[in-house]
Amino acid sequence: MGKKSDIELIVGGLRKDKRLPEQTREIKMKVGNIVSANGSAEVSFGNTIALSSVHGPRELFPRHLQESQTGILRVRYNMAPFSVDDRKSPGPDRRSVEISKVIRLALEPAIFLDDYPKVTVDGFVEVIQADGSTRVTGINALSLALASAGIPMKDLVTACSVGKINGTLIVDLNGEEDNNSESDVAVAIMPTSNLVTLLQMDGVLTKEELMHLLDLAKKTCKDIHEMQRNVLLEKYKGEE
Amino acid sequence: MENFALELIQNGKRIDKRDFMQFRNIEIKENVIGKAEGSAYVKLGNTQVIAGIKMGVGTPFPDTPNQGILSVNSEFTPLASAEFESGPPGENAIELSRVVDRGIRESKTIEMEKLVITAGEKVYSVFIDIYILDNQGNLLDAAALAALVALLNTRVPKLDADGNIVRGEYERKLPVVHKPITVSVCKIGDKLFVDPLLEEEAVIDAKLSIAFREDDKICAMQKQGIKGIEFDALEKMVDVALEKSKELRKLAK
Predict the structure, then answer these.
(1) pTM of this prediction?
(2) How many domains does chain A contain in total?
(3) Cis bond before residue A62 (omega within 30° of 0)
(4) Could you read off the pLDDT of A145-167 as tens digits, one per residue?
(5) What structural domains and CATH numbers belong to chain B?
(6) CB < 8 Å from A in window 135-194 of B
(7) Is residue A43 assigned to a domain?
(8) First to last CA, chain A
(9) ipTM, 2 decimals?
């Protein structure tokens, strides 16, 4: 994409949507919103909205894909045709295939599938409105959906984007900032165990800037993690 | 389940007796495909990759009317591994293409604005096709290196009076102004090492691939592998990749 840093994205210390550099957009979370699924969640960061559901553990077909020792996680990330300015033709493209893979790898370290040989846990992420940071919004949603499906997890997975616009290091890029950023970095962590499970970066950064951004991501993820915990506790308190 | 490669690494050794920070021997051949505008063959140990560059004329993307077009594709041909199947590219092939693409695009390695023929209407397109010929590990580093070397020897084809490409005649070299080098650092427990063999890739906890420009700025990163990485380890991995990138860059003339 064209990275044009000449566009004014920060004026008087504020971003165009009135945020401070290190401030996220309004974050909303819901769980259990899709009753037909074993687990589900909806997460929005400002105008970016991701729905997620989990089906399974269920038997995996064709059989040759089954693992005799462990269950497997499959992930499909998809963007709805109406989620973006110019209609996106439906179905997987190269971008969504890659993102599906990195989301799977971001979640896999947090779940225990050893107790489920020969089965699959299928996680779906549908971005119904896209305004930047869709993969990290999807990871937050899928993490909640896995938890609400009762999949054993050693930690939640929490994600956010960080980056650089107009020479300033920022948190949670919206679509316009993403398109005009000098760099954007997607980070997912397991907040309790402090492990990084997704790290993708493009643009141009010095090592020092990268380290600072990782620190910002860590702090932001702590806050998002708190919200994830709360939404799960709220939904399932009192349930056996 | 004990594994030979894993056990060795945990004991500070490797199957091929290399040091953890040592790349396998790298052999590079330039201009291996006469039909292509640029090309390179890279043999990294026993991993073999060809990058071929073809140029065409096309319509610019609406959001970048004053820039040429870059496209990176890779083929994991069935001849290169029993694991590769024919058919549309799988997620690993797509990921590799996209990580190589980001390393070149985000670093602004090619001066895309110098590939405009008529602003907003007609531009040159640069197609980088990466062919995996033999997979013995660390495809990404080999592919990124092959792509860079191929770009460095790419020539821009001449156009006739109607603006069509005249094959076999060239007007100038492709404007390549940076030399991004991708280095993947692997992690097993607290052990870090570079240039994994296929057997080692099968047992790594995580891998972080980082592209550096010659000014030591980072221009792309991708984390792979089944486990998470501790924050403390990330900085070490970046440092290792930076050091090795300088070494590999000497091979890209």
Answers:
(1) 0.87
(2) 1
(3) yes
(4) 999 999 999 999 999 999 999 99
(5) 4-249 (3.30.230.70)
(6) none
(7) yes
(8) 49
(9) 0.77
